[in-house]
Amino acid sequence: MKLSKFVQGLFTEGVVNVPRQLLEFHADDLRETAILLQQYQLAERLELAFNAPDFDESAGLWAAQYFYRAIQFVLLRELEEAAIQAYLKAYEEPVTCEAIYSVDLIFRHLAPLFKLSSGLAPSDPLVQMLKETAAAWPYSSVGLDITPSVSTAVIINHPSLKYAYIDRIIQHRDQKRITNNMEKQALEEVLGLYSDLLWPKLQLPNLH
Amino acid sequence: MMEQMLLIEEKYRPALVTVRHIAGLKAATSADGLIWLRGSFSSGKDGLLIRALPVTQNYWVDADGRLFPEGKPTPVAVLPTLDWQPLKTFLPVTLPTAALPGGLTETIRIEMAPSGLVREAFALITELSHWKTYAETAPQTRLAPLRFAASDSGKVLIIGQPLPPLPGQHLWEQQNNLLPLGLDFDPPVLAELLTQQTEAAAPSYRLFNRDGRWEQVNFSDFRPARRSAVRLTVNDHG
């Protein structure tokens, strides 16, 4: 299945198919995928407060390919760990606001991927790798019981990403994501005087 | 000549926002609740947007109205008679019903009097410009509990809790009557009388001015306060 078809299926129905072979993606397919991501984010950015970050094509494409391969490796257990290491490479560019926004177009679907991999042993190298990736992208992994391995300062310092991140924390009641005063202040800013209404029984710890 | 026809479930209606700018597209709703979309589905960027729609069924229709599934030589149905509309007209989000300036012939003389009771605000009438500014910068957590109906005159009626901190007229609610805060019917029993004598064709609120005049706002005129809906509504009001 082409990457563009995969992304289209993910965006429209949330249903994807992957082949049994680790075929390389053609340049035309990658171009079409980039256009799909670009078009999709035009609609998505209408839902974000303030001005959403610009679309980072290479980050979006990295996420799409990573996600595609991750599903393949979850389903095709006969593949060697070396292949997993070779295909599921971490993002190597600086993690900017633009990268976070663009990767999230795909990684917001991490939850079903985690569910898909729930049948694997917790110590399975693939499971560990997926958790590490989710921890490296805290904006996309809210609600997955993942402790971020990176600072959320880039997110909190961008008004658009900050609100979307806190919105997700509230939606998932993921209080463990509030780990410092910067995040706590952002949460209080969003809840305002309506904490009891918007997040009943919330009790924030004293943070430093 | 064959024409392409896409079927989309009603729940995906908001997705059509992404293609409403494409010229020539028409849409209709069939009796079974499905949205039918017809037009020229080009292969350029517009074509990609069309392809990104959550389509349930893809048909080709011939001159006799017979429907052929994509890639199949045999028709499986006949195109029903539908009320086709240009997509811009079809999408409620693009043309919110001009709810606020409407009205009904009054059969009861309504008097208002100051009330000493403290009541919680249920709704807010404000300017569309204020609403747009708020929606541009508010967290989704604060928008999600709200619904709004916009009028052609640039006013917007917002309901939900908590209401946004915007200037405007706050209203309280009693038996679907929306009254300015600080006022009540004189006598208060008018609320029940009104409910009995003004049976609307559709579920609706009666929105009262300070002088007792009122207008009807149907429940169906309200849209969820999605940021995109507010932004597109403002665009349509120029």
Automatic annotation (TrEMBL), chain A:
Domain of life of the native organism: Bacteria
Pfam families in the cross-refs: bpX4 (PF19920)
Sequence ranges assigned to domain MoxR-vWA-beta-propeller ternary system in this UniProt record: 2-202
InterPro entries per record: bpX4
Record's protein name: MoxR-vWA-beta-propeller ternary system domain-containing protein
Organism: Mucilaginibacter limnophilus
TrEMBL record, chain B:
Domain MoxR-vWA-beta-propeller ternary system span(s) in chain numbering: 7-232
Family annotation (Pfam families): bpX2
InterPro entries in UniProt: bpX2
Protein name per the record: MoxR-vWA-beta-propeller ternary system domain-containing protein
Species annotation: Mucilaginibacter limnophilus
Record lineage: Bacteria, Pseudomonadati, Bacteroidota, Sphingobacteriia, Sphingobacteriales
